[in-house]
Every structure is written in C-alpha cells, then in structure tokens.
C-alpha cells in the first residue's frame, strides 16, 4: 500500500495555519469574510505559511474553477478597484455560465441586499454596465420569492449585526478570563510542586 502524500498544512505548526472555508450559494458565508481572514493571515503569518481554500459547494453550476476565480480575484484585485466596487459592503461569490466560464458575482443577503443599500432589481442593474455577461445580472440566479430590501430592513440588519458583535465580544472576554485563570492556576500548582 502506497503512502498518501502529506497535505500542505500537515507540515506547518498550528499558528501558521489558516483554513478559509468558502461555501455554496445562499449560505451566508461570503468572500468578504474570506478576504478579512486572508488579510489577517498575510499580516500575521510567515510568507511560507500555507493558505488552504476548501470548496464545499454542491451546486453543479459552481465549478471549482468558479470558486478559485472568486478567491483569486479578491486576493489580487487592487485596493482602489475594491474600494470603487464598495467591496467591503458586498458578500462576494462566484458564478459560471453555460460555457463554464468563471465569474465573480455579488450575492444577495436577506435583509442587506447586495450592497447594504436600497435597490430595485430590474429597474437598473448596475452590474449590466460593468460586464456584458448575463450571468452577472442581479436578477439572474436570484432566489424565488425574495423581495427587494427596504431602508428599514437594512437598519434592522445593522442593529442585529451590532448586537451579535457585542455578544461575540462578551464571549471572547469571558473566554480570555477563563484561560487566564487556568494559566494562573497552572503556574501556582507548578510553584507548589
């Protein structure tokens, strides 16, 4: 029986690893989150540390090529272009057309829309100006029954996000306190032994 090749992350220490999980459509985990993780990874890890992208989509329309295209585009796009596209307010995803060409596409988030602003789909699709590809239109691939986001929806979404952030910060502080107490208990028992 032949030995399996080691995965790239198996030879790296835990503090040098980062796994970015990019999931399928309408999952709520987008490339905006991945971009933040990649930025943190690049800022805090050695240049030789492995970056592993895991594609978990089951959608036939989303090929591996499409997922790679979105992740690579996000990593390589100049910051000015990302700023112009309001990338920090977008959940980025990927799409492939009937010719299996991969494209980067904005995805809709319930209560937030595409960019955190009120837009009426079909009235004027901003993405039509950017690319001639039909697949990039917001109305293409849109979930059935979804209604256009309102200003009130966006306010509720931001309030919920702020509340979630506060709760996560409280959990982080609680966890740090627990770890600090355990460390001091460990040090005291080491002194007593």
Give an account of the 3D structure.
- GO terms for molecular function: 3-beta-hydroxysteroid 3-dehydrogenase (NADP+) activity.
- InterPro entries: Ergosterol_Biosynth_ERG27.
- It comes from Ophiocordyceps sinensis (strain Co18 / CGMCC 3.14243) (Yarsagumba caterpillar fungus).
- The protein is α+β, with helices and mostly antiparallel strands.
- It has 2 domains: 14-149, no CATH class; 151-193.
- It has 5 helices and 4 strands.
- The chain has helices at 31-44, 64-76, 79-84, 126-130, 151-192; strands at residues 18-22, 51-55, 91-96, 102-107.
- The strands form 2 sheets. The protein has a two-stranded parallel ribbon. Strands 3-4 form a two-stranded antiparallel ribbon.
- A hairpin with a 5-residue loop joins strand 3 (91-96) and strand 4.
- Helix 1 (31-44) crosses helix 2.
- The longest helix is centred in the C-terminal third of the chain and has 42 residues, at 151-192.
């Amino acid at each position: 029986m032949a030995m399996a090749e080691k995965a790239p992350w198996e030879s790296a220490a835990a503090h040098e690893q980062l796994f970015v999980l990019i999931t399928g459509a309408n999952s709520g985990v987008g490339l905006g989150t991945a971009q933040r993780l990649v930025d943190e990874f690049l800022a805090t890890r050695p240049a030789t540390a492995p970056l592993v992208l895991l594609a978990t989509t089951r959608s036939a329309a989303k090929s591996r090529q499409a997922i790679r295209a979105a992740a690579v585009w996000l990593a390589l796009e100049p910051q000015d272009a990302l700023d112009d596209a309001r990338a920090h307010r977008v959940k980025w995803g990927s799409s492939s057309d009937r010719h299996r060409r991969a494209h980067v596409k904005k995805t809709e988030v319930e209560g937030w829309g595409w960019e955190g602003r009120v837009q009426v789909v079909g009235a004027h699709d901003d993405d039509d100006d950017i690319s001639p590809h039909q697949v990039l239109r917001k109305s293409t691939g849109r979930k059935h029954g979804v209604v256009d986001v309102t200003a009130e929806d966006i306010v509720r979404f931001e309030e919920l996000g702020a509340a979630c952030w506060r709760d996560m910060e409280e959990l982080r502080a609680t966890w740090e306190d627990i770890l600090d107490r355990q460390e001091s208990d460990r040090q005291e028992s080491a002194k007593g032994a």
